[in-house]
Model the fold of this input.
Amino acid sequence: MEDQEKIEQLAYHYKEIIRLLGEDTNREGLLKTPHRVAKSMHHLTKGYKADPEAILSSAKFREDYRQMVIVKDISFFSLCEHHMLPFYGKAHIAYIPNKYITGLSKIARVVDVFANRLQIQERMTTQIKNCIKKTLDPLGVMVVIEAEHMCMQMRGVEKQQSITTTSDFTGVFDQAKTREEFISLINRQSK
Done:
């Protein structure tokens, strides 16, 4: 199905949702809303169309470097698959190369691919780790994600300042000393 056809179908359903909520879909302020929301949702879920492994592989270089590579404070936003409300925050990623490195921007792009899907933070953390592990075959990978969830802030428990932290790691990051070094480095304030 073509993108424009998907957007039109989404717009039809959003118009019905607005009507079921009790609004007049012919009211001036709402006339274009179904189409705008459909385009927005199509954009916010563009991660389904991207291949994160291909992104990493597009800038995969042979390099004899075996120290920690960290890309921290990668901002992202996603949609919670349970309520389709936003969650947003920062991802911190480290890997220790084993013959191959990748372009630093590619790591941020991989975060975006997994974030731009209906998602849960726990799964996203593991998907990012697994993608880097599979594509680069490093000595180890660690991912930490810190996020605020609008589903906790706007509904249900309504806790405004809560932050959820998830982590996943493999390889040399199984050693507490290596994990502690990573945590220390991501917690260090930039000058």
The chain has seven helices and seven strands. The mean pLDDT is 95. The beta strands are 60-62, 69-80, 86-96, 100-102, 118-119, 140-149, 164-171. The first helix runs from residue 3 to 20.
